[in-house]
Design goal:
Arc Repressor Mutant, subunit A; about 200 residues
Length: about 200
């Protein structure tokens, strides 16, 4: 597992929210110089943490308003035929090899139920037994990927908080210099006496 620090985490967060940021803008947001930012991003790319940059296209806007998830049960001997068929299908966004009752979970964007039915029939011809669910809505989509709790950056953040809090506590018990006390008393207006 590749370790990242809190600066890397901030860079990843910014890029996941807006992958079109210039290095200068990204550097300003994170608080680094442009050369330092360029070097950090290059290292994240080389380590495979930043796997790429891409446009996010709305399927409905390009004529594919229906999203469906197809659970596929398949005999081992049909896997290659099935996967080759999927790779050639423009409606397929993703195919996941999964555990459980099914072999694969396929995410597709289609124009209609008729297109979905034809696709499921074609997959059946490739040896697949399919169970299909049409997506009604997507309450969460494209959420940023963050390091797990307990990762290096999480531990670093906790250590810094503890240090900061210890520093604050020790600052609270330091006596105030006498010269400050006099200045503060002299600058405060006197309260009028009530009669």
């Amino acid at each position: 597992m590749s370790t990242i620090d809190t600066l890397d985490e901030r860079i990843l967060s910014e890029l996941q929210h807006n992958g079109r940021l210039t290095m200068k803008s990204l550097a300003e947001r994170v608080g680094l110089s442009s050369p330092a930012m360029i070097e950090r991003v290059r290292r994240l790319e080389e380590r495979g943490v930043l796997a790429g940059y891409r446009a996010v296209v709305d399927p409905a806007a390009i004529g594919r308003p229906m999203t469906a998830l197809i659970s596929v049960d398949l005999e081992r001997r049909h896997h290659d035929i099935f996967l080759n068929r999927l790779r050639a299908e423009p409606a397929v966004e993703a195919c996941y090899r999964v555990t459980g009752d099914h072999s694969y979970l396929v995410k597709v964007h289609v124009t209609s139920t008729e297109e979905l039915e034809a696709l499921v029939d074609e997959l059946g011809d490739a040896g697949a037994k399919c169970s299909t669910s049409i997506v009604l809505s997507t309450p969460i989509d494209g959420a940023p990927v963050v390091p797990p709790e307990g990762s290096v950056s999480q531990r670093t953040r906790l250590t810094r908080r503890r240090r900061r809090s210890a520093t604050m506590r020790s600052d609270d018990i330091k006596p105030e210099p006498a010269s400050r006390k006099r200045t503060r008393r002299q600058s405060q207006p006197e309260e009028p006496l009530e009669t």
